[in-house]
Amino acid sequence: MLISLEGIDGSGKSTQARLLGEALVARGHAVVLTREPGGSPGAEEIRRLVLEGDPSRWSAETEILLFTAARRDHMERTILPALAAGRIVVTDRFADSTRVFQGLTRGDLTEIVDRLHALVIGREPDLTLLFDLDPATGLARARGRRGHEERFEDFGPEFQARARAGFLALARAHPDRFVVIDAARDAAAVASDVLAQVLARLGRAAP
Fold first, then answer.
1. CA distance 190 to 69
2. Given pLDDT bands bounded at 50, 70 and 90, which one contains residue 54?
3. Cβ of 3: how many Cβ atoms within 10 Å?
4. Measured CA distances, 184 to 27, 51, 97, 103, 164 (Å)
5. 83: left (phi over 0), alpha (psi -120 to 50) or beta
6. According to the model, what pLDDT value does residue 143 have?
7. Strands lying side by side in the sheet with 127-132
8. Which pTM was predicted?
9. Helix 187-201 crosses helix 13-26 at what angle (to 10 degrees)?
10. Per-residue confidence band for 149, with pLDDT thresholds at 50, 70 and 90
11. Exposed/middle/buried for residue 16 (C-beta within 10 Å: 0-12, 13-18, 19+)
12. For the chain, counts of helices (H) and of strands (E)
């Protein structure tokens, strides 16, 4: 099972991915935790190119190519081997982030993203958890991390608002795959909700 975690910057995806992985392992599942861009040596190199530096460093079109290249390597070297071995893969971001951050927020490039995805990736997650949060709150959380991967945060609050709207539109368009999670709650409450959703999808009753 391939599970993706999506949402605007600062929505708590990374924390919830870790907590979900720990909870599933405790229940006897074999789990691979990974992230995008990244998740394989080559994709991690591309991560540094796209997440650091000035916001104007790349055009949206160039970013689509870079993110898709990273995702292809991630699929080949990490995701597909793990799935073939019967593991649950939990990834912090996947193709929906490219659809939103490059396909929608800086122009209408959705067709390019989808055509490349169909040609080079050809797979959607089995379950996508969308962590929904007010953009101002998310941006404050993200900036509070004080990391060096802040290129997308530097696009500002209007960018994050457009991204939130884009993610919610995708969730409405694909209700069979998406579950929207209220990310404004404390981490424990969110984690409990996430685990219940995943266990239900796995066909197991939540404790």
1. 32
2. confident
3. 24
4. 27, 25, 20, 26, 14
5. alpha
6. 65
7. 31-35, 88-92, 2-7, 127-132, 178-182
8. 0.89
9. 50
10. very low
11. buried
12. 9, 5
Q: CA-CA distances (angstroms) from residue 96 to 9, 14, 113, 114?
A: 14, 16, 10, 10
In the numeric block, which tokens belong to residue 82? Answer: 């793990």
pLDDT digits (tens, 9 = 90+) for 61-102: 998 999 999 999 999 999 999 999 999 999 999 999 999 988
Would the pLDDT of 206 be above 50? Answer: no
3-class secondary structure, 28: coil
Element (H, E) at 109: none
pLDDT value of residue 205 = 42
As beta bridge partners, residue 104 has none
Q: If you write DSSP's letter for every residue of 129-177 in order, what string do you get?
A: EEEE--HHHHHHHHHHT--S--TTGGG-HHHHHHHHHHHHHHHHH-TTT
Rounded distance between C-alpha atoms, residue 25 and residue 101, angstroms: 32
Tens-place pLDDT, residues 22-34: 999 999 999 999 9
Radius of gyration of the chain (CA): 16
- CA 202 vs CA 18, 29, 77, 95, 196: distances in Å: 18, 11, 24, 22, 10
Distance CA 9, CA 143 (A): 9
